[in-house]
Design a protein that fits this description.
about 700 residues, alpha/beta, eight-stranded parallel barrel, five-stranded mixed beta sheet, 22 helices, about 10% strand, binds 4-O-methyl-beta-D-glucopyranuronic acid
């Protein structure tokens, strides 16, 4: 409803000077359902909708189909049983729909969430069936069908079932309405007005997620407050669970390890203490009384100052298993995060998670899943895959991606994360020889794990466009699509998204998809080329800060990571250094060990490289570094030009916002290039090729106030 109102509002009150298209806020996301062109009307025509809807989920499917038909085809097809003609759409399960039951479609392989779209003939008439074993499968099928129309593809026979079980958003939303690393306004959860008021936006959120197959949401920040487990908040959470349930979305909560102490004044939170165990048991029972299908808990323990079982000299397994045991009777899961690192100057931060968790392999309960960030450090523009993938065959592992771009330009920079996710998922761990990809680890197929899944740190807020920019919506979209199918290609998803979000016109889709596909590499080049990591500004991580040495911990300072000195640049993670390369297997390990074999993309991640080292390009390291930073800036210029050429295809509001953000990105790419090169030049003491010297002295960049890039 609200999507519709917004669209009408936007249509009525905007002037579309440059394009003639209606200005759009972006609120409709990829579910815009704009009219199909005349030549497609016949192809997609539906004369009758045969869709008995005895459940809320089936009613949601029918409502969505009718919304789509009204928007795209100009009318919702009549449901009544008129004289049979071509063009009926049959929708349902064998239980909900006698017609679907009579078709005896091959549904067995679809499982509990898959769907089938079939061109069928009924009583001599052409028809289409959307069928599944379950109501939620039908809803997913309805969205897939609408996606075909929105993408102007023929309605082709399709069978699809998700390859992972848990496809979950992690909201780093605080109970006070702020969002940690959120760049799209305040939290969409209004805890104040819950449980009494269900904001229609929650339903639109559920629709958007269901349209891409997301089936779970962790409502609150992993840096959790104990209060989220109080009776008051359980009641609020239950109201959200009720609202999201028809769309197949389960709710989960992040929990604070010390909650028993903070809420009930227990003397300890030791996982082996019977009183503590009892507290969690009672808490779980209380939650499941309010939310019978509650998903479970996400836990950040003994990480970045959070309390955890190690405070009591217990292991992560002791902690995870205690929680797992109390959730088990309710079929709940524990997602235990592997994002841990200690401030021990003798131990490389990149090594810590592996060191702590690999020895625990085989000791976790079967309803525990370890949630592992894609890289060993922290959501950088490019990192090698975490060596935990492929090293814990007896433990369920799920992927944690970041959708919100904490380290990739946050709200403004255009960086499509599909290629980043694809690169991580297609990395080969060599756990069981060639082809043991990360995708196969986390979809459970490689080691037959009990639980499979992918989590994404959400980029959703209450901004009109949900994600802070139009192109940030693509990252939410691709996350969902890759969680459903970790083998889907980033380019194919970009095409889908672009067609639905803007237009299916190839004159738009081809260049814009090309722009998206190169955008993440542009960020890598102008921020952290050649395997540099974590040289962002202190704390907020926006803008360059290779000089940053603020703070109490060595592993929170930039020089810890880049190690620039008179000899060269980069972190020696081979056997002569921290031996992080030794945590990998087979040819990957060999490549990372050997400077001659290490791909340029990871060179400075694994090696301390002399400034005059001859690179594959033939340039010295110093000159290559300059070339990469410049290449990043040039790529952003090219993105600006590509977008400028699309003026006639996009409404003014979305066109102008994107163009303005690209201009910000360009200015900030120059800032990154010049600040980093000015900084590294003091170590390299090598000259700049003519025309490449930074405009300002290093001190100017170091003195820049937060978020203020200098005039290029
Ligand atoms: O990337 C870092 C972020 C923290 C975050 C932490 C984590 C929620 O800077 O804001 O805390 O990772 O993933 O736990």
């Amino acid at each position: 409803m609200r999507l519709l109102c917004r669209a009408v509002f936007a249509a009525c009150f905007s002037f579309c000077l440059s394009t003639g298209a209606h200005a759009e806020t972006g609120y409709d996301l990829w579910l815009r359902y704009t009219p199909v062109e005349a030549q497609y009307q016949q192809q997609y025509k539906v004369t009758r909708l045969d869709a008995p809807a005895p459940s809320p989920t089936l009613r949601a499917a029918v409502a969505e189909l009718n919304r789509g038909f009204a928007g795209m085809l100009g009318n919702a097809p009549p449901p009544e049983n008129r004289a049979e003609m071509d063009g009926t759409l049959f929708v349902g399960t064998p239980t909900s729909s006698p017609a679907i039951a009579a078709m005896k479609l091959p549904l067995a392989a679809l499982g509990a969430e898959g769907y089938l779209i079939r061109n069928v003939t009924r009583n001599g008439r052409k028809a289409v069936a959307i069928a599944a074993n379950t109501d939620i499968g039908v809803l997913y099928g309805a969205f897939a069908y609408l996606r075909m129309i929105q993408s102007r593809q023929p309605i082709t026979d399709t069978m699809s079932a998700p390859k992972t079980q848990l496809r979950i958003l992690n909201h780093w939303d605080n109970l006070d309405g702020t969002v940690e690393r959120g760049y799209a306004g305040a939290s969409i959860w209004n805890w104040h007005t819950l449980p009494g008021y269900i904001d229609p936006r929650y339903i639109d959120y559920a629709r958007a997620n269901a349209s891409i197959g997301i089936n779970g949401t962790v409502l609150n920040n992993v840096n959790a407050r104990a209060a989220s487990l109080s009776p008051e908040y359980i009641e609020k959470t239950a109201a959200l669970a009720d609202a999201l349930r028809p769309y197949g979305i389960k709710v989960y909560l992040s929990v604070r390890w010390s909650a028993p102490v903070e809420i009930s004044h227990l003397k300890t939170a030791d996982p082996l203490d019977p009183a503590v165990r009892n507290w969690w048991k009672n808490k779980a029972d209380e939650i499941y009384r309010a939310i019978p299908d509650f998903g479970g808990f996400l836990v950040k323990a003994n990480s970045e100052g959070q309390p955890g079982p190690q405070d009591y000299h217990r292991t992560h397994a002791d902690g995870a298993n205690m929680i797992a045991d109390v959730l088990k009777p309710h079929h709940g899961v524990v997602m235990w995060r592997a994002f841990v690192y200690a401030n021990d100057p003798k131990v490389d931060r990149a090594n810590t998670a592996y060191n702590e968790f690999v020895p625990l392999d085989g000791t976790f309960r079967d309803n525990v899943v370890l949630q592992v960030k894609n890289g060993p450090l922290d959501f950088q523009p490019r990192e090698p895959f975490s060596p935990l993938f492929g090293a814990m065959p007896k433990t369920s592992l799920m992927m944690e991606f970041q959708i919100t771009k904490e380290y990739l330009g946050q709200q403004t920079h255009l960086a499509y994360l599909g290629p980043l996710y694809e690169e991580a998922l297609q990395s080969d761990t060599y756990e069981h020889g060639k082809g043991s990809t990360v995708a196969k680890v986390i979809d459970g197929s490689l080691d037959h794990h009990a639980i499979s899944g992918i989590a994404g740190v959400a980029n959703i807020g209450n901004d009109a466009d949900w994600s802070g920019s139009i192109f940030n919506q693509a990252n939410w979209y691709v996350f969902g699509r890759m969680a459903w199918d970790p083998e889907i290609s980033a380019r194919a998803v970009a095409q889908e998204w672009t067609k639905q979000t803007f237009t299916a016109d190839p004159a738009f889709v081809t260049p814009v998809v090309d722009m998206m596909m190169g955008s993440r590499d542009a960020v890598v080049d102008y921020m952290t080329p050649l395997g540099l990591e974590l040289i962002m500004a202190h704390s907020h991580h926006m803008g360059p800060g290779p000089w940053d040495v603020i703070g109490p911990r060595e592993d929170w300072k930039a020089p810890y990571y880049h190690r620039a000195d008179a000899v060269g640049l980069g972190f020696d993670r081979t056997t002569t250094g921290s031996d992080n390369a030794g945590q990998y297997k087979g040819p990957v390990k060999e490549a990372f060990e050997d400077i001659a074999k290490t791909p340029d993309d990871y060179l400075l991640y694994f090696h301390h490289v002399p400034w005059d080292y001859k690179m594959k390009s033939g340039r010295t390291l110093w000159n290559e570094l300059i070339a990469r930073y410049q290449r990043g800036v040039d790529k952003v210029s090219a993105m600006q030009a590509a977008w400028a050429a699309q003026n006639s295809h996009v409404d003014a509001a979305r066109f102008d916002k994107t163009a303005a953000f690209l201009a910000i990105q360009h200015r900030e790419a120059i800032w990154w290039r010049d600040a980093c090169l000015a900084y590294f030049a003091q170590f390299s003491k090598r000259p700049f090729p003519p025309g490449y010297a930074p405009k300002y002295p290093l001190a100017t960049y170091e003195a820049m106030p937060m978020f203020a890039s200098p005039k290029p």
